[in-house]
Amino acid sequence: MKKRSAHDEEKEKSQDKDADKKDDLSVGYFQLFRFASCKDVAMMVVGGLCALVHGAAAPLMLLVYGMMTNTFVGYELEIQQLKDPNKTCSNESIHWTNGTVFETSEGATVPCGVDIELELTMFAYYYIGIGASVLILSYVQILFWVSAAARQVQKIRMTYFRKVMRMEIGWFDCTSVGELNTRISDDINKINNAIADQVSIFIERISTFVFGFTVGFIGGWKLTLVVIAVSPLIGLGAGLMAMAVSRLTGRELSAYAKAGAVADEVLSSIRTVAAFGGEQKEAERYDRNLEEAQAWGVKKGSIIGIFQGYLWCIIFLCYALAFWYGSRLVLDTRELSPGTLIQVFFGVLMAAMNLGQASPCLEAFASGRAAAKTIFDTIDREPEIDCLSEDGHKLDKVKGDIQFENVTFFYPSRPEVKILNNLNMEIKAGETTAFVGPSGMGKSTAIQLIQRFYDPSEGKVTLDGHDLRSLNIQWLRSLMGIVEQEPVLFATTIAENIRYGRAGVSMDEVIHAAREANAYHFIMDLPQTFDTLVGEGGGQMSGGQKQRIAIARALIRNPKILLLDMATSALDNESEAVVQAALDKVRDGRTTISIAHRLSTIRNADVVIGFDHGQAVERGTHAQLLQNKGVYFTLVTLQNQATSSSSEEAESQEEPLGPKTRTMSQLSHSSSFKGSIRLRSQSHRSLDFVPNALTGSFQILSGPEMANEEEEQAAESAPVARILKYNQPEWPHMVLGSLGAAVNGSINPIYAVLFSQILGTFAIPDVAEQRRQINGVCVLFCIVAVFSFFSQFLQGYAFAKSGELLTRRLRRLGFEAMLRQEVGWFDDPMNSPGALTTRLATDASMVQGATGSQIGMIVNSLTSIGVSFIIAFYFSWKLSLVIMCFLPLLGLSGVFQAKMLTGFANEDKAAMEAAGRVSSEALSNIRTVAGLAKESTFVEAYEQQLEPPFKSAMKKAHIYGLSFGFSQCVIFMAYAASYRFGGYLVSSEGLAYTYVFRVIAAVVISGTALGRASSFTPDYAKAKIAAAQLFKLLDRVPKISISSSEGLRWDDFKGNIEFQDCKFTYPTRPDTQVLRGLTVAVKPGNTLAFVGSSGCGKSTSVQLLQRFYDPDQGTVLIDGRPSPRISVPFLRSQMGLVSQEPVLFDCSILQNIQYGDNSRSISLEEVVEAAKKAFLHDFVMTLPEKYDTQVGAQGSQLSRGQKQRIAIARAIVRNPKILLLDEATSALDTESEQTVQAALDAARKGRTCLVIAHRLSTIQNADIIAVMSQGAVIEQGTHHTLMAKRGAYYKLVTTGAPVS
């Protein structure tokens, strides 16, 4: 049942998702601004205009740069001419000393008299002017966009939360609270990214793109066209690379998905793997699947390397082409001056680069639109039951008669399961009505319909004859006080919690309610009395205390109708008596409905209604129903027996079970079969928490403990040395890669040298020499291009190889470490199969970020900086020093740029946390909030919490704008200072002007490289944290070691088992003691059968025997040796397990049976032999592929009886001394049951056997039958002795009542 419905749900979910995909998956871009006010629109328009103008600044600078180049070249020519003592300068052109004008070979005059310092001072002012305007423009652009976005997002958050709080409960069943919390934080942040600074940056880059081309075309259209003609090659390369990478990533992921599926399958069925000792086998299977993923990863790395190499190669060839053709235009046709050549070339280059940089913004827009889809859909959705609406009648006088007329009901989250089936019943005003019956039969559902959390699918529920649907919801809920099994308290003081019951009550009323709930005394004993904080989810209070505060909260409403949903089931006897007394006191004169499993709470009800399969099957007083011998009778029989015997024991045991011991069995006396708890776990409750049986501990986890866990993980990051140690075997690859990276790093500075060399050629008077030099430089460009192709490829391939090998190694080690842990570790929700498989998938590949490509980046940046400095200082140390003053600023601006890209979103996240706490508290306890009709209180609290982050966001907009402006203008200032000083050096110290360009270009390049290196830090930090998590897993020492070298082994294993006074609580549910002093023994070759209701510890005792857990007190003796001293693999190899839901692996029948013994290879003959014993052989021979038939995932291709028999064959192949049968036949129909039973009886011969069964017929021939209740044995003996005793067993057999 459980498996099926879970599977169907998955299927439905995926179908829903597909349906969504066909619909529009995202909203239109401009719809994102639907919450903008006129003021916001105005701000965005002004910000957009500023961005447009800002975009024009860089191309404008090129014009200045071009003029400056011309000045330098002219000055150099003049200096060269004036070296000849026969020439002088007069009237701004060069004359011979005899007064005639000097003409060059082409017959042109040579201008002179350039005052280079004056000219450069002018240019410096230009630069400063551009820089200052950039500072102001970019500040305004960012400030306006960011603050407008902050205001809109604030509106979206408020609207969204208010809408969510109005939704009906059924909507919350289908939407997980975690998902809503992420939507409120992450998705809205994505919208923010799509409508904030990214837009202005996008506008600015597009504007640079347009103006860059314009500058190019104005300067010289021929050269511009030539450069444009080549640029598709770059675009093509980038496009192909993106395509190839995404396809390869897809391949890599699907290859890893296979390994992931293996990991998931193994971790989901960890108990089976452990029981059959398959850990080593599974680790190898996982590793085999990793190999393929690794191969694809290496391919991806090499292809990225090839394409990167191709891109750089093309870029350098472009340079060669452009400079060669450009120099022709300058020298031969005189269409361009050297300055215009520079201007055109860089204009086009800049345009192309900005177009490329604009594309990440598109990504932010797309993800914002997709995120907005779900959020806007919710905002536009009309709730089916709107709890904040004013509609509906309010009755003047309420009696409190409630009637159900033909009510049929399905939960919206599970439409295929009918919970209430044509239910008819009436509840009279002023009476106490008790609902009883097995779990999952619709009792709690009926109560939720009375509160109108849901509307019935058919039929109607009426209050005093009025259909609930016609009444006002807030008013209706104000009539009711509800006390649940697991009361939810909010994280504030006790007094505030009681006040949640009704608005505007005085302290006296609070005290009065507390007295009525028997809570006053314990509250007054606390140091801060009513001002004591109850902790997150009431975690600081014991169960009984929480329960009484909840009762006080219900009473202060002065309700007409009191709903008690198992209000005392979570308490121990002492606090139960107190709480029960409180409830009895307040029931008078109110319509009370109580769901209970303990008889003591039901005996004094006026009417008892018995539920079964969603119908009210019996109704009457306690005495009448006992005569009926129906549902109620079974419950009573089992309970009386349990209480009578456990009370005797309780007296003999002196130690009290502290106030928090919540017994699991009380919940389950009535469970109709083991599945009922499972059924429950699927039902409505499970969406609030984990199954109700377990809530006690799980729900608290969502609070402070979980947060601490996360903080701890975030706090520590792993030392790099240790990560590198895992990468040690790949050192040759890493050396090669670093070599490639070093070559790549030095290419940029070399480019600076070549570039300045080209400018130098224009000032050579001899034309032939000019040609020769220009061609030489172009050839050098081509050589650099080829080099860079190979070195990029080398870097890509080598680091991909070492990184992928590391990832695979870490994944394997991580998986092996997981399989080493004890079974109890997997019970922790943080270690669920899903969480662990994701951890394997992501953490390991993140760690790669700290080694492989990261080292490449670092080496690349370092060589780039190193080579640049060497070049700069070699050519002019003075100028280098001046520019170096700007380096820290340039580096800072690089950091800002990098931060701009990631956005300042992360900082805002922290500020949002307080608001997040309010929202998550409200959403996770939505039923309580709705029951108390307190939705609007939480909406107001949330809106208050949004104020501080909003204000800080508005402040940040200024800081952010300034830092952005600074980072944009710093380069202009650097140019102004360095070129001005360069001019001084040229005129006074005769420094060649090419050196000025060379030095400045080299240092600026190294500055940007610095910025780039620092921008890679986020991946690096993430990688270190991921590594820390992995190492934490690798270093964890399991509580129960499965290594084969430790522990005792002995040859003549007999199979003598003895439990001595075992006490045990599951580690994840520390407040529920499952075994309380279990004492029972079985001799070799005998069969011991456990009988008892679900949750009384039968399966737990089997798990202790297998050493999945160790008892907290007492011992399990095997052949007289205490189990913790025995070698685990040895012990498990002596046991064969057949469980109720046998786990089969997704392989052939043969392999599944061979799984029985993983320590040796099993021949087909043995398998057939075992299959014959398990009555399986004949069936297998009818299949077309016989033993090679695939069983499908979890054995889905086979019927239950067939799966069960494969499991039996698997157990027989082990040839175990001890056979464990955990309800091995309960899931079968009669026919297959007989076959399987016969197989089991055959298998039991000569082995010690532990049987857990629900059908008494299957265990009558057992040597010892032990009847269990509440974690202890209440009677034991053979079938005949127990029948003669006329105790619990006798009653169960004679009445034929179901056991659990």
TrEMBL record:
Q: Where is this region: Disordered?
A: 1-20, 643-668
- List the subcellular locations: Cell membrane
Domain ABC transmembrane type-1 intervals: 45-367, 735-1022
Which GO MF term does the entry hold, naming one?
A: ATP hydrolysis activity
Q: What is this protein called?
A: ATP-binding cassette, sub-family B (MDR/TAP), member 11a
PROSITE patterns, alphabetically? ABC_TM1F (PS50929), ABC_TRANSPORTER_1 (PS00211), ABC_TRANSPORTER_2 (PS50893)
Q: Which residue ranges does UniProt annotate as crossing the membrane?
A: 41-68, 124-148, 199-219, 225-245, 309-327, 734-754, 774-800, 855-875, 959-978, 990-1010
Its membrane topology: Multi-pass membrane protein
What do the Gene Ontology cellular component annotations say? mitochondrial inner membrane; plasma membrane
**UniProt xrefs under SMART domains:** AAA (SM00382)
Family per record: Belongs to the ABC transporter superfamily. ABCB family. Multidrug resistance exporter (TC 3.A.1.201) subfamily.
Organism the protein comes from: Knipowitschia caucasica (Caucasian dwarf goby)
Provide the ABC transporter domain boundaries. 402-638, 1057-1295
GO BP annotations listed: oligopeptide export from mitochondrion
Output the Pfam families linked to this UniProt entry. ABC_membrane (PF00664), ABC_tran (PF00005)
The UniProt keywords, alphabetically, are: ATP-binding, Cell membrane, Glycoprotein, Membrane, Nucleotide-binding, Repeat, Translocase, Transmembrane, Transmembrane helix, Transport
Q: Where is this chain primarily localised? A: membrane
Q: Where is the signal peptide?
A: none
